[in-house]
Amino acid sequence: MTVKKEPIWIARELSKCSGCRKCEIACSLAHEKRIWPEASRIRVFMLVPGTDFPHFCAQCENYPCVKACPVNALSVSKKTGAVSVKTKACIACGKCIDACPGRIPHMHPTKNYIVICDLCNGDPKCVKVCEEGGWNVLTKVTRRNQAYKLYARTPEDITKSLAIKMYGEQGEKYL
Amino acid sequence: MIMGYTGKFLEVDLSSGKITETKFNDAVLKEYIGGRGLATKILWDRLGSRWEKIDPLSRENILLFLTGPLTGYYPGGRICVSGKSPQSNGVIGSTVGGEFGVELRCAGYDGIIVAGEAEKPVYLFVKDSDVEIRDASHVWDKDAKQTMTVLTRECRELLRKRYPNYGEWKEPAFLYVGQAGENKVRTAVVAAKWTHAAGYGGYGAVMGAKKLKTVAVKGTGPLPEAVDMRRVKRLIKRVNDIVYEHVLWRRWGTGGGGYVVGAKTSSEPVRNWQDEWHDERSYGVDQFENRVWIKQYWSDFGCPTCCLKVAMVKSGKFKGAITDNPDYEMQAYLGPNLGLFTPEENVFLSALIDDLGLCGIQTGNVMGFAAELFQRGILTKQDLDGIELKWGDAEAFAALAKKIAFRKGIGDLLAEGTYRAALKIQKKKKMDVLKYAVQAKGIGIGAHGIRSGKDYPEAIAYVCSVQGGDHTSTAALPLDGSGSELAEIFNDSGVYCNFNSFGIPRKVKFDFYIAITGMELSMDDWFKYKALRILQLQRAMLLLGGPDLKWNPKIHDANPPRFYEPLPSGPHKGKFAEKAKVEEDRKRYYEAAGWDENGIPKTETLRRLGLENINKALEKLRYQS
């Protein structure tokens, strides 16, 4: 598959997520050569049953995580717009997590560096499996001038929205 | 060590609070694989010598949570729960979908073996190799949704405190019991994700008896390494590609069954199996889809099917009830079986059953049984603590379900399950009520009748199964055929979702095992040795039974009496199971399985399979018969 020159973004329709976690499987296979849900750059949360959703980098326009890194381990890929992690430089201090409005980055479970979605160099594997399954929660779009940072929200915040959308007021009881 | 396993099992003794790790040698894992197969081996080795004396609800019983080498790799994750069953007094490999098995393997364990009994309510929290027994007093007496809400919050807070730099913690996977399990109700489940359940076997009662409210697992490692990951990836794709073709199966899951199994195949329980046919359009899948499904595709780890749907009642008196689908078994047993034919009533009852931690099949079965006795004037309103148990009264059945879960009044009797309740009522009322009990060896029959021959075509499906009325593990000939119980044993021992195995060639499933473990596995290996060995172990422990009940194959290898009555209506009106045919098939099955004319595994069969010690234990049964 040819990689588009323009940066991309992964659009997400969270309330359609089935919670199949095929994105976690595809991501960890691509990055770790193993099925490894906790090392996946996209993680499916299910804090309330039925409100499963994928949590992964939204590539905020202002990249607060990159700015917060004290050792310049993070940078923005010109080609894809993704945040790249220089694993050798990263000191696993967690400042990028605190800087992220969605607290999206997380530590690699066994190595001493942060993991952040790299958009698979423009050909994201999570999107592919989501499309194959017909769920289309994740779709690849061209990155233009949108408010992408709105999608950087904490798991609790997203869960609350989805729980209320699904279960109404009653949804708040389960948070 | 064989690849594809973590190689370690957790041993938890709740009496002493001791937590250790154990291993099984390669030969054992090779022969018994995992899940159901390994459960039979562990239970026989540890409890076999005193099997008949062990009360399943005593501290002596062992509760098992076992994965298999295919868990997490084969699409559709599950976990197998087992132990000595308080329903059949044998061994059931009871599986439930979800992420638990995957989390456990990622935490570095192939299974958990729980012995003893805690003094006060506890839960087990496993975070990789950090394992602790924690107080659960605050969630005791809480229902499924409350328990999961409290413990999701609590476990994530613990993780956040202990690993402050990690980032956000996903929820651990949970297995839990509701109030029914706490009260040792024999129809209680081990549940997951609000709505999923390992029902057959009644292991919720075992978990409750041990005062183990919940097991929570978070594993941060990868799945144990497979020998040939490239091949595994190809196999995963193969399964996905086949499943993606099944468009309506994916869209409806088993939710189409509530109407179709009645209207089309005449094999759905209607009013305690007095009929198996109905043509109620109000119960069509379109009604579920359009009125109550709020999420059309909901699934467990790696699943391409998504047969689950989240359902919620949005208006009317049952407003606010949440469950999944309900799937076909719940649709049938908490629907037509109780004379109910609307999605709203069905979701309402199903949600209540989930919340209380009851099994919808077993509880629907025993409530249907009670309602028929009420219909016939055998059980009166007074016997039922003032409940008028009329067909079609959802609220009356809800009131009864609560009584069962809390063992209150008549509920205490019905909490024993259909067979045991029937024996007691029989004694009290001095009349035969077993003829209304639709069960096999202590286990209520799944919602698939055999009379029409259009759904479950085998007359001995439940007669010869080592898991009694379990519709996911029925007997069929030939023994190496696709409908054979030996084929089901592979699903339950590899531990993956049997609902993702429909239409998948058997070779693909075996290839998964080979690509993951690097071990050989031929059809002959499986059907003539390994699976047959597991079957004999299950049969032996089932026949040894005890202490409260024993099965005599001559009497109990039988269909429920109702299946010999003709179907009263519908396109298959007049059809029934023919006794002569059942007898003949049973005889053929005994021969094929290597059992003698009394249904007891033969010495030569057991010797050939290297099960001499079982042969010894069965000697007295042979003598008795």
Description:
- The complex is a heterodimer of chains A (175) and B (625).
- Chain A is α+β, with helices and mostly antiparallel strands and 175 residues long.
- Chain A has a single domain (8-174), classed as 2-Layer Sandwich (Alpha-Beta Plaits), CATH 3.30.70.
- Helix content of chain A is 24%, strand content 15%.
- Chain A has helices at residues 22-32, 64-68, 95-99, 125-132, 155-167; strands spanning 8-12, 43-45, 53-55, 74-76, 83-85, 106-107, 114-115, 138-142.
- In chain A, strands 1-8 form a two-stranded antiparallel ribbon. A two-stranded antiparallel sheet of chain A has the order 2-3. Chain A has a two-stranded antiparallel ribbon with strand order 4-5.
- In chain A, strand 4 and strand 5 form a beta hairpin.
- Chain A is globular and about 45 Å long.
- The model of chain A has no long low-confidence stretch (mean pLDDT 96).
- With 625 residues, chain B is of the alpha+beta class.
- Among the domains of chain B are: 9-218, 4-Layer Sandwich (Aldehyde Ferredoxin Oxidoreductase,  A, domain 1), CATH 3.60.9.10; 246-444, Orthogonal Bundle (Aldehyde Ferredoxin Oxidoreductase Protein, subunit A, domain 2), CATH 1.10.569.
- Helix content of chain B is 39%, strand content 12%.
- Chain B contains 23 helices and 17 strands.
- Chain B has helices spanning 26-32, 35-47, 100-106, 144-162, 179-182, 203-209, 229-245, 247-252, 257-263, 285-291, 328-333, 343-356, 360-375, 394-405, 410-414, 418-429, 485-494, 506-517, 523-544, 553-556, 579-593, 603-608, 612-624, and strands spanning 9-13, 18-22, 63-66, 78-82, 94-97, 111-115, 122-127, 130-135, 173-176, 190-192, 196-198, 212-218, 293-298, 308-312, 322-324, 439-440, 443-444.
- Chain B has a 6-stranded mixed β-sheet.
- The longest helix of chain B has 22 residues, at 523-544.
- The radius of gyration of chain B is 23 Å and the shape is globular.
- The two termini of chain B are 44 Å apart.
- The chains are: A alpha+beta (175), B alpha+beta (625).
- The interface between A and B is large, with 52 and 47 residues.
